[in-house]
Fold each of these.
Amino acid sequence: MTPVQLRDLMPALANKTYFNYGGQGPLPTPSLQAITASWERIQELGPFTADIWPWLELETRGLRGSLAALCGVPPERLALTENVTSGCVLPLWGLPWQAGDELLISDCEHPGVVAACRELARREKLTISTLQVKALRGDLTSSNASVLEALENSLTPTTRLVVLSHLLWNTGQLMPIAAVAQRLGEHPRRPWLLVDAAQSVGSLPLAERGAEAFGAGAASVADIYAFTGHKWCCGPEGLGGVALSERLLHESQPTMGGWRSLANENIAGGSDASSAWHHDARRFEVATSCAPLLAGLKRSLQLLEAVAPAPQRLELIQARSHQLWQGLGQLPGVNPLLDVPPPAGLVSFVVDGANPGELVHQLGQRAIWLRTLDDPHCLRACTHITTTEEEVELLLDALA
């Protein structure tokens, strides 16, 4: 399958120029059909019969295996979630905190994750400090060195958690997750590492050897690596996953548990409450979810893989993001945030004298869709494997 053929399977791309893959990817028609077929199969089997459970287990196990392979972790370390937030928060709240523990949060984290950490800090009497990475706009070698230097200057004897996205959602810069994890392993308290992977899963090669510079291995070294299927994986909203370290599985307990969290859904455990939970990542799966979404996301992953393996897909993404970055730099009064071509598909930029919200509205009237960001205040366009050369030129011409 070619990118053009995949594009033709996405109705959302037929009548617009779309640059919001980092917000939500378009759902291919075969994925929608797989969801519908799954609904129908559930009703054929009976939604609560002896026949439905083996079928549902196969569906769940199949997708868990696919997502684990995508992340490069064993399936027992992968929990299915509804979104990035639940993947971050559910394990985070179950860790053994002590009053005075410090949370080190980068200045480029999504407000949803930051808000959850602030509430955790309020309840557990923790402190919060900031890891400065927003100003890093250069090549990966210098940027990675600066991240580690900032980390070194920010770590304290009380640091217990570091929160750092893999691919920064606002600037588009790539973070050296493996190197950060290695440094945290040398800290006396071995702080946990929480990684928001909303922009990396589906865009970066996470499991392939030889792709370490672009994040391969990151999911396997983080303690919490949370992602969604509805962005770069082009799956349905309402389904994602989180890769959890062996250490976290040993140290964290569910704070929101349900029948799916239990090793035996009919037994809540005896006097030792911890004995009731699954001993693997399934302890952080809660209760009833929308089962047909499993088939939709699995089909989307298959379609992406049919175009090319992950490293080659990143090259396709970069071809268009680099084209856009270079074109923006040639327009008077337009300044890309990054000083070098983007490492993936996020291209953020500012337009001198323009109100970003008004500019997005004007472009939307011409069926060209991107978005604004508040911190830093800028515009963001995303390129995927289905983005064409002509679309990039159309955006550049509209901005000009």
Amino acid sequence: MTREILIATHNQHKKEEIQQILGENFKVTSLTDYDLHEEIVEDGTTFHENALIKAKYCFEKTGKPSLGDDSGLVVEALDGRPGIYSARYAGNHDFAKNMAKVLEEMKNEENRKAYFVTVMCLVDESGERYFEGRVYGNLTREIRGEKGFGYDPIFIPEDYSITFAEMKAEDKNAISHRKEAIEKFLNFLKV
């Protein structure tokens, strides 16, 4: 039996990535599938708060088990920035500008350590639960690769020599922060 999970996003890349990780036992739907287009105000101060805001909105609108996801890039030398502001660091969902800003801020920095974090919040009739994943690595000095989305072209995961944007989708999805969070979610469901 296929279980539906509503993902609190309009981002088709994110929906596809989650569908690929979850597999055929799940039908991943999005805000677009339910024609929900009003802006969800993410005014939380943490990834957890923003994930909850999104999941709660979806569950209240549809009654479907809803998964809110808040992800971001955390850069050690930038005191954790862009962090919860990753999607709008230099321009709202303009990742070319966002990456350019990070690379500019990091141009004289030797410490390239960074990590991606995903916090997922499931909201359904029994309440809310959180699942967190992280992948550690280093920032490049230039944009590399065409695949992926967001900050993928400037992030090299530990033990690799290529960026997320240079990897095949299935290779990235096997080690990503989102994969780790989803695995915790699946373990919770005991699928």
Amino acid sequence: MLAYVRLEIRRTLRDTGFVIGGMAMPVMMYLLFTNLGENDGAWKTTAMVGMAAYGAVGSGLNTGGAVAEDRATGWLRQLRVTPMTPREVVIGRTLTGVVTVLPSIVAVLAAGGLVNGVRLAAGHWVAIALLLWLGSIPFTLLGLGNGYRLTGPSTGVVNMVCNLGLAVIGGLWFPISLFPGWLQTLSAYTPTHRFAQLGTAVTEGHAPGVGAIIVLTAWLALFGSYAVLSYRHRAGTI
């Protein structure tokens, strides 16, 4: 399985689309959103975490697009004859997604510190990157589930809708305080809002709340089950 993970990581990092969509786009959006009009330092810090989370979600979901391509080329058919179980295949792909999410997070954090002048303690920078890195696992699993279950074109569309919808409703682009009351309540249960809270808690000087961990764990179990079931479903047709 480790050899499989190394292979997939190399394939992903060589993909030009990943570099542009997973790294360059979140950085450009962050710099644009925080340098229009009067924006204080607190907003630049909060937006940095939110856009790093957005980049991580997009990179995690992008793993599903690679899976759909593998199905088209017959790579999944080859995996069926290996000793790896469906669970190990999903875990291997998840590890690939987790590793390739890190550059997206680091790129936005670097833009915050080097361009926007965000100042945090060294330990806080590390904690934010680590928490967002680990917290991105549910979104990688969601992307995998879509990639295993849907066709190639459908995977791209569904992942894009998931990325944009979860980003907006979860408050990754705008503060949820701007939302109407009912949408603020809904946002609290979204995985993206709780995901961003992992990082914003550190910038505010405290550990992530129990609520954020519970909600993310629930989504992790749901998306993980979806990914495994989708792989098993597709394995019977390839």
